[in-house]
């Protein structure tokens, strides 16, 4: 008789509570008999799919905002996020992907005009420690990396990653031998350095010396072509952002930085050359060039002018042409100090 009647679907609150109980079971019960454990894990996978369906909708219906609010409130009322992150390695690949999407969605869910995910993480920053250190785990790196990028949407989280020194780890993560993990770490690093402009400007002002020493030696002078290309592109994004104008002036006043950029201009890769030019032009445009910068530009003037005369964009780009004319003019007019 039981099979004749469908059980009533769980409410969003009940779905989260059920998932929470199952996560506790998975986390704490290592020695339970195998068939019972498999039952519980299969039940957890269904609950994770149910949460994803509530937040994203499915082929038959769009998500309902009230249901999303209820789910979000319950999810952060207890430590469900913590349990999900800790138990993620014990889940199969499909459930990990679903869990990653759930965490992403919850970062954007507002309850009474507040991002309660941000409030929760601010009280549980050690979860961010787990996500950052996840890059050391080949199986988990891409899942934890995606979760971390979504958490970095919150300015307080980005500030935490910078201030406690986690950002230092990315100089090594970006050089990991696993291409996919290195690329994911580079994407997270870019998000950290570009999303919250005031936080980035403050961080760079306070940490200029060690940060750019690492950036130059490990990224711009890396033996890996992709690392160099991504690094010089990101450097241009940072330097050309008005919020970082003070840092930019300091960077383009360094002869060591100038030499690195001039070497990048000599790369065989056109894309690296083009990105390097966008930073190099800032050295040339600086109206308060230190004497050693002027001397390096004068010493290399004929080579630079010959290079720039033949240096063209692959596509029509008026701004590039204007910038090139201005750089040539600046270098040609330099007088030895």
Automatic annotation (TrEMBL):
Name by which UniProt lists this protein: MO25-like protein At5g47540
Sequence similarity: Belongs to the Mo25 family.
Residues that span the membrane, as ranges: none
InterPro entries named among the record's database cross-references: ARM-like (IPR011989), ARM-type_fold (IPR016024), Mo25 (IPR013878)
Lineage, broadest ranks: Eukaryota, Viridiplantae, Streptophyta, Embryophyta, Tracheophyta
A UniProt-annotated Pfam family: Mo25
PANTHER family per UniProt: CALCIUM-BINDING PROTEIN 39-RELATED (PTHR10182), OS07G0585100 PROTEIN (PTHR10182:SF12)
Molecular functions (GO terms): protein serine/threonine kinase activator activity
């Amino acid at each position: 008789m039981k099979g004749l009647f469908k059980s009533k679907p769980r409410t969003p609150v009940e779905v989260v509570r059920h998932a929470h109980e199952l996560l506790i079971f998975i986390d704490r019960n290592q020695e339970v008999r195998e068939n019972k454990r498999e039952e519980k894990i299969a039940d957890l996978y269904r609950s994770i799919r149910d949460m994803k369906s509530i937040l994203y909708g499915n082929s038959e219906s769009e998500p309902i905002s009230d249901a999303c609010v209820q789910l979000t409130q319950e999810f952060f009322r207890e430590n469900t996020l913590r349990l999900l992150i800790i138990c993620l390695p014990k889940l199969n690949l499909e459930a990990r992907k679903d869990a990653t999407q759930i965490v992403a969605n919850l970062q954007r869910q507002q309850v009474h005009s507040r991002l309660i995910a941000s409030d929760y993480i601010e009280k549980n920053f050690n979860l961010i420690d787990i996500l950052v250190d996840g890059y050391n785990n080949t199986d988990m790196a891409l899942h934890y990396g995606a979760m971390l990028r979504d958490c970095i949407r919150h300015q307080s989280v980005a500030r935490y990653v910078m201030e406690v020194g986690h950002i230092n780890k990315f100089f090594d993560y970006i050089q990991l031998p696993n291409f996919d993990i290195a690329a994911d770490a580079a994407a997270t690093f870019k998000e950290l350095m570009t999303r919250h402009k005031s936080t980035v400007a403050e961080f760079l002002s306070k940490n200029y010396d060690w940060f750019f020493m690492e950036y130059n030696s490990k990224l711009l002078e890396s033996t890996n072509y992709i690392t160099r290309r991504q690094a010089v592109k990101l450097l241009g994004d940072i330097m050309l952002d008005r919020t970082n104008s003070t840092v930019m002036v300091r960077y383009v006043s360094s002869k060591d930085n100038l030499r690195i950029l001039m070497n990048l201009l000599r790369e065989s890769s056109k894309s690296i050359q083009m990105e390097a030019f966008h930073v190099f032009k800032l050295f040339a445009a600086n109206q308060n060039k230190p004497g050693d910068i002027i001397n390096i530009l004068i010493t290399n003037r004929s080579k630079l002018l010959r290079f720039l005369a033949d240096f063209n964009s692959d596509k029509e780009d008026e701004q590039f042409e204007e910038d090139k004319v201005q750089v040539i003019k600046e270098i040609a007019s330099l007088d030895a100090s």
